[in-house]
């Protein structure tokens, strides 16, 4: 019983933190996606660098520029509603990821340092809630929990989440450098981390498990979508083949999954 109370309190805390920032993040995305003007924009169709995305004649009167390489409109998302790029991101369309990573997230329109920290905090919160859901599915000692055991579980979960994600990002970066053979001048660690954190937005679907009851297998379905989203983002920023990016993502997620399973087994063996 105390375990269920502690789990419910932890879930309520995570939900409150997420609800506080979701509306603010949506308004921020709306402002960024509608009229971006990156200093180094790229065509969302082919990834070719262009000088400017649009020419603005007067407020609300703009003309979209065409790509010199593919002759298509460089970024049609500028005139779209917010839901259009969001839907294309969920559908894993590379052009939506190019729009977000190259034409929206840049130093002149966004404070990348603040965005990186906020994304990391949200990433860790969602991962902590994921670990909590996995522990809730293990009912071996649900009736024999004490306050000291609850405290130990919370500390263990926090350590697992922080250490597991540090190992995950480092292994991900090394696997990407090894498998994709990307030059260091093109492939900076900060840009890589930002791309991985932003492309892990599908973890937000874990919040639905606070409202509706899902089987624990739904967590791994979300993990599969996150892996595929990371692969598309990595393909966009490195311009590598999809097979190589999937391989790099699979190695990193497999190592993280190993640490999660190991942590669960250690928690179960103690009690």
From TrEMBL:
Subcellular locations according to the entry: Endoplasmic reticulum membrane
Pfam families: Arv1
Role description: Mediator of sterol homeostasis involved in sterol uptake, trafficking and distribution into membranes. Regulates also the sphingolipid metabolism.
Protein name: Protein ARV
Similarity comment text for this entry: Belongs to the ARV1 family.
One cellular component term from this protein's GO annotations in UniProt: cortical endoplasmic reticulum
Membrane topology of this protein: Multi-pass membrane protein
High-level lineage: Eukaryota, Viridiplantae, Streptophyta, Embryophyta, Tracheophyta
Keywords for the protein's UniProt record, in alphabetical order: Endoplasmic reticulum, Lipid metabolism, Lipid transport, Membrane, Sphingolipid metabolism, Transmembrane, Transmembrane helix, Transport
Top-level taxon of origin: Eukaryota
GO biological process, one term: sterol metabolic process
Transmembrane segments: 161-180, 192-212, 245-264
